[in-house]
Amino acid sequence: MSWYDTNLVLIQATITGLLLALSIQIPLRMGVFSFAGVGAYGFGCYAGAVLVLDHQMAALPTILVTTLAGGLIVLVLGLFINRLNGLTLAMATVAFDLIIGVVAVNGGETTGGATGRYGVISDFTMGHMWTILVVVMVLVALSERGKLGRRIDAVRDDPELASSVGIRVYNYRLAAFFVSGLLGAAAGAMNILVRSAITPLDIGFHLIVLALTMIIVGGSLSWKGAVIGAVVFTWLPDVLQVIGEWQELVYGVIVAVAAVLMPRGIYGLYVEAKRAVLRRRRTRRGAVRAAVAAERARTTDDDEALAEMEDDLGSPSVTPGGSMGANL
Amino acid sequence: MTTSANERVAHAPDSGTPVFEARDVKVYFGGVKAVDGVSLKLMPGLIYGIIGPNGSGKSTLIGAMTRLTKLTSGELLFDGEPYHNASASSIARKRVARTFQTVRLLPDLDVRDNIRLGADGRQDERPNLLSRILGIGGSPATDDAIDKAQLHGFESFYPSELSYGTQRRVEIARAISTNPRLLLLDEPTAGMNQTERAEISQLMKSLKNDGLCQLLVEHDVQMMIDTCDHVFAMNFGKLIAEGRPEDVVRDPQVQEAYLGRKWREHA
Amino acid sequence: MQDLLSVVTLGSIYLLFALGMSLTWGTIDILNFSHGSIFMFSVFTGYLILDLTTLPFLPVLLIGVAVGALMSLLVQVLAFEQILKRATNKKTAEMQILIGGIGVAIIPLAIAQHHTKSNPFGLRESSFELHTWVVGDLRITNIAAITVVTAAILWVAMALWLRRSRQGLALRAIGVDTEVASLMGVHRRRLALATMAVSGALAGLAGMLFTFSLGAITPESGDTLLVKAFACIILGGIGSMRGVLFGSYFLAACEVWVLTQTSGSWVEAVSFGLIFLVLLIRPTGVFGRKEVRRT
Asked: What ipTM was predicted for this assembly?
C-alpha cells in the first residue's frame, strides 16, 4: 500500500480540520471574534447524516445544501449578535456552539440522541474532497490579495478608519459570519461523509479549542497559517507517540507557548523574518540612505529628527481602544 | 508662504451653495456638552481653520461631520443635501476625507498599500475584474498622492519603520488619494518641526488651487494665519468668533479663551 | 421547598466560582479562561495528596485555596503579563488573553486527564463525613450549609473590601480608567497579582466545596462551569458585585426549574440560552451601567 492509502484517514482529517480552522480564521481576519463556525460544523455533521440516511441524497447535493444552510444559519445569528463587541461576541458564539450540542442530544430520532447517527455511507470520493478543497483555498487566497485584502485588513485593524475611507464595515462583518457558516458546515458535511458516524461528544467545547489552536499556532492572518496549523495538529499526535504517554502535555505546552509568545503563529514568524530581510536588503541597496537623506533635507534639526526616527522605529503605531473599561 | 490679497478677498461665506453646512450641531457625552450648537458653512475652494483650547470640541465636531461620532441634535448638509442620518462610510463615498488626530495606519500594509486603501474607493479607479481579483495592476491615484505628499522612496516601508512626521504624511496621502471634495485635517502637523509644517501648508495651498475645500484643526497660530482663508474659534463647544485669521486671533474673547499670553508674545 | 434549597446550594457554588472570574474581569480586564482549569486542578491536587494521607475537612479546603492562588499567580506572570507586555492595543490584548487562557488551560487538563484516564475523581479519602439534617420535610446536608454560608460571607467580604478599602478603591479605579489609576499612584502590577491570587483562591475553594457536595468531578468539569460562570457575570452585568450574586442564583433557579420540568438533558442549554437572551435584550446585564465612550 502506498503512503497515501495508509494515511488516508489522517489526510481526510487534515482537510476537514483545515476547513474548520478557516471557518474561525476568516471572521478573525475581519476582526469578528466569532467561533460560530464550530457550531456550523456540528450542524453540518448532523445535517449531512440526516440528508444521506433519511433522504437518500447523493454526496454532492448533500454537501451543497448543508453548506448553504449552515451559512444562512450563522448569517442569521450574525444579524442578531453583530452589534456585540470583542469578548461578549466570542462568548455568545461559544454559547451557540454548545447549544448545537445540546440540541443534538435532545433531537430524538433525527439526531439519534446520545448515540448519534452512524452508517452514513454515500458516493463521496476523495476526488470530490480534493476538488472542494482546491476551490475553497483558491477563493480564500484571493481574498487576501488586492483591494479585498486591503479592505479586510482595514476592517479588522481599525473599523473607524475603514468607514472613513468608504468601506461598509457592517456588510463585511455580516459576510464574515456567512462565510464562516459556509466553511464550518462544509467541513462538517465532509467529515460525516468520510467518518460515517457522529455523536454529540464529537462536537463539544474541545472542538473550539482545536480549531483555535490550529490558527493560533499556524498563524491567524493567512490561509497558509491555517494550513500549517491543520497539518501540525492532525499529525502531531501521531508523531508525538514517540514521546509516549506525555503527548497530551507536550501538545498543551506547544499551544500555550504559541498563544503567549507568538500570537501571529508560525506563519507570522515567517512574515516577520521576510520583512527583516527586506529591510536589510534595502539598506544594502542604499535606498534607505536616499530616504533618510530626503528625511534630513526636510528637517531643520537633523539630530532631533534622527533621534525621533530611532524612537519610532520598532514602536508600532498604537490606536487607542477608547474604552472606559468596566464599571463596578 | 504669503497668500495674495486676491485670494484673501475670496472668502465670502454667503454666496453660492456651500460644500458643507452645519446647523445647530450638538454632541453631548452624558452630561458633557462637547459640541453645543455649532452652525457653520464651508464654501468650495477655500481653506478653513478651527482653533480653540484642548477639549473645546474641535475634534468632536470633525467626528460629527464624518458621522463617526453620534450627533445629539442638529443638521449636517453636504452639497445642500442633509446627511445626518447617513452612515460614516456613505459620507466617505460622497468624498469627504479626513485624517485623525492620532496616526492611524494599518501595521500590516506597507506605505503604498496604506495609501491605496483610500484610492480603492474611487469610482474612476476600477481596474478590470481580473486584475482587481488578482490584486495586480497599478493605481494612478495612489502614485499621484505619493507624489503630492513627497513620499517617494518610502513605498515599501511599513508604518513602524517610519518617523512620526512621515507617518503623518502617509495619513494625509491616504486622504488625498480618495480624490476628496472636502478634506478634514485634524491636527495634521502635530509632532512636526517648522520645515515640515511649512511643507504641509504648501501642500494644502496647492490642493486649494485644484479647488479643494479644506478644514484644518491646528494649534499653531502662525500656520493658521499662513494657510487659512477663514478661521472659526471654539471654546466650550461653541463658536466664539469667526472671520479672517488675523482678525480672529486678535479678538479679545479668543485671546482670553485660548491664546492668552502666548499670542501676545508671538505678536 | 426542597427545590429552593437546591437553588440556593447550586447558586452558591456558581457564585464562588463566578466571583473570582468577575473580580478579574471587572477590575483588571482579564477574562481568565484558565479559571476552570485552576478549579479542576486544585481538586486534582487535593485528590493526589489524599492518596498519600488522610486529612480533615479544613486542611483540604486550604490546599484548594493555596493551589488555586498559586496557579492563578503563575498564569498571570507566565502568560497574561507576557501578552500585555507585547500587545499593541486593547482589543487585540483582550483577545489574546482569552486565547492565552484557553491555551494555558490545556496543560493542567492534560496532566489530570493523563493521570485519571479522564475518569471522575473525588476527595473520598478525607476524614470529612457527610451529615444530613432533616428539618420538617427538608433534607439539608452539612456541606450544602457550609457552601451557602461560605459563599455568603465571601461575597459580603469582597463587596465591602472593594467598596471600603484603599486597595478596593484603587482596583475600581483601574477598572474604570487605567490612566486615572496610575495618577492615583496605584501599583498596577502588584494589585493585578493580588487580584489574580484572590481569584484563583476562590476557584480552588469552589472546587473543593463542589467536589465535597457532588462526590466527584471529571477533568473536563471546569470547561462547563466556565461557560456557566460567564452566563452569571453577563446576566448581572460585568464588574457588578450585586450582578454576579443575582446572576448566580438566577441561573441556578432556571436550571433547577428546567430539571424539574423536563427529563434533564436540556439543563446544559439553560446557561447558553440565557447568555444569548441577555446579550440580545440587555447587553449590559441587569445591574450593569452603560459605558460612556468618547472618540
From this structure: 0.84
